[in-house]
Amino acid sequence: MSTPAPSPETIAARNARAGWIVGGVVFTMLGLSFAAVPLYDLFCRTTGFGGRPMVVKEAARTVGTRSYTVRFDASVAQGLAWRFDAETTAIAVKPGEVTTVNYTVHNTGAGESTGIASFNVLPEITGGHFNKLQCFCFTEQTLKPGESREESVVFFLDPSIETEPGLAHIDTITLSYTFHPAKQPGKPLAANSITSGVTAR
């Protein structure tokens, strides 16, 4: 027994339903693509993924026993005539100790310019244990020709780093800052390769 052919009305209804489904999928994917960047940024800030240090409001209540070397890398991306230096290349800290390190940024160009600093921590797996109480990252800084400014980062290592599985072999952490032209923020230069000290360009 043959199956009767669907009526034109039935075919039109099916086509309309399929169109709505396809359209819904397209709009959903479009919405997710716009949300991906802020969601990824939120994920990194709350988990330390990708070497993103944690931003916290309170210091640790305990101090660990193991000593770690924290290195400070300061660099300037192309397109910004600034000099950027940390007051020290490295220090020894114990988890839970609150430490302040100062940086100096100087406009060596002939005109006023604006920069913005990005940062990360290497090795990346330590990002969730590197806690910042104060920093100057992602805030636009405008300097006049020849002007210098001092900025500070206040941080501590979470005491849990001593007992975290997979981190027992780590004793050196690099905090990397890079100043970019304000309209061209990007990853710190040390995200691509660990440098041996502070560099200024």
Describe the structure.
This protein has 201 residues and is α+β, with helices and mostly antiparallel strands. The protein has 2 domains: 1-47; 54-191, Sandwich (Ctag/Cox11 (Pfam 04442)). It has one helix at residues 8-47; strands spanning 54-55, 68-76, 82-86, 90-93, 99-107, 113-122, 130-134, 141-143, 148-157, 172-181. The strands form 2 sheets. A 5-stranded mixed beta sheet has the order 1-7-9-5-3. A 5-stranded mixed beta sheet has the order 4-2-10-6-8, with no helix packed on it.
Question: Would you summarize the structure shown here?
Answer:
The protein is 20% helix and 33% strand.
Main attributes of the structure:
201 residues, 2 domains, alpha+beta, Ctag/Cox11 (Pfam 04442), 20% helix, flat, disordered C terminus
| Class derived from helix and strand content | alpha+beta
Question: Helical segment tally?
Answer: 1
Order the strands across the largest sheet as they lie in space: 1-7-9-5-3
Radius of gyration: 25 Å
User: What is the domain total for the residues?
Assistant: 2
What is the name of the CATH architecture of the largest domain?
Answer: Sandwich
Unreliable spans are 30-51, 193-201
Shape: flat
Mind describing the biggest β-sheet? 5 strands, mixed
Order of helices and strands: HEEEEEEEEEE
Number of E-type strands: 10
N-to-C span: 83 Å
- The CATH topology annotation of the largest domain reads as Ctag/Cox11 (Pfam 04442)
pLDDT averaged over residues: 78
Strand fraction band? 25-35%
| CATH H-level homologous superfamily name of the largest domain | Ctag/Cox11
Helical residue percent band: 10-25%
CATH class of the largest domain: Mainly Beta
